[in-house]
Amino acid sequence: MNFLSDKSIGERGSGDTADAAPGLGLLPFARLRHQCAYAECPERRRLWPRWRARSEEILFEGKRYCCAACAEAAFEREIERHLLLAQPDEERPHRVPLGLLLVSRGLITSAQLQEALQRQREQPGTRLGRLLLEADALSETALTATLGRQWGCPVFPLEASRSYMECTRLLPLALLQSAGVLPAHHSPSTGVFHLAFTRRVDHTLLYAVERMCGVRAVPCVAADRLVAEAFRRVNVSPEETVFDSVRGPRDMAHLAAGYAAKLCAARVQIAGAADHVWLRFENARGAHHLLFHSPPHKHSVTSAHR
């Protein structure tokens, strides 16, 4: 029995018939050839490639690799790209500075603002809102609401909801704490993930979460104190591994390939966010997160209007 009709044979041309397997009719050898995106895969050079279980295959960046070792070079290229794209975490000034916004809304006086700015110059890196809270010039609720107005984000009521207890297991805790952001609420039905920021809205992190988790990440704002209390209530997931001392994309890729093989990962994703290279391994049991702390070179920046 022939697998292709005479008409289709004519359309494909005589060159394809040369690849037909003897005794298998006209089934092309292409269906039996070893499939791996790695150009130097050792199995490509074998007449009969070693049989591999489907569990060894890895999908990465839309390409399929026969095993973790073959995907290592692709991991290294992608990690290197994210390291080169990493930028210092410099806060961009807002069109309306926080101090002026507070004065215009009648929440503080000009004298209180000037006093806080003077203390900020004496304590470089300290945020203006924190100094106003310490001076009892402003309430936490008023500060959070004003930040939401400045950032164009809603305020999430963490004191009224503990939905974050479930959400924190979906993302690596070390990454969240580094960015000062708490996953406040996740709606599986709509695919919306609300992330509560305390310092600034990190759009790179929002994009990374969307890309890695397949959700729509929506920024909101929450008080520093409430976010700190929430982090004390949650525990680090066993499905999270952090390396602080690994340097260089080659070493990172080698470790990543080892974890991919150990976890029998069917899919691997890589993103850069919050001074970390973030890898997500998906398998039949769920997902495992691997983080490499790799901060870019930073320059000291102090803004009197944060």
Sheet/helix structural class = alpha/beta
Number of helices: 12
N-C termini distance: 77 Å
User: Count of DSSP E strands?
Assistant: 9
| Overall mean pLDDT | 83
- In terms of quaternary structure, the protein is single chain
Rg, rounded, reads 26 Å
Instruction: Estimate percent helicity.
Output: 25-40%
| H-E string | HHEEHHHHHHHEEHEHEHEEE
Description:
The longest helix is centred in the first third of the chain and has 18 residues, at 68-85. This protein is of the alpha/beta class and 306 residues long. The termini are far apart. It contains twelve helices and nine strands. It has a domain at 98-151. The chain has helices spanning 6-12, 14-17, 68-85, 98-104, 110-122, 128-134, 140-151, 164-167, 173-179, 203-213, 224-233, 249-263, and strands spanning 58-60, 63-65, 181-187, 192-197, 216-221, 240-243, 267-273, 276-283, 286-293. The strands form two sheets. A six-stranded mixed sheet has the order 2-1-7-8-9-6, with helices on both faces. Strands 3-4-5 form a three-stranded mixed sheet.
Brief summary:
The chain is of the alpha/beta class.
Give the helices and strands, then pairings.
Layout: H1 6-12, H2 14-17, E1 58-60, E2 63-65, H3 68-85, H4 98-104, H5 110-122, H6 128-134, H7 140-151, H8 164-167, H9 173-179, E3 181-187, E4 192-197, H10 203-213, E5 216-221, H11 224-233, E6 240-243, H12 249-263, E7 267-273, E8 276-283, E9 286-293
Parallel strand pairs: 1-7, 4-5, 6-9
Antiparallel strand pairs: 1-2, 3-4, 7-8, 8-9
Helix pairs in contact: 3-12
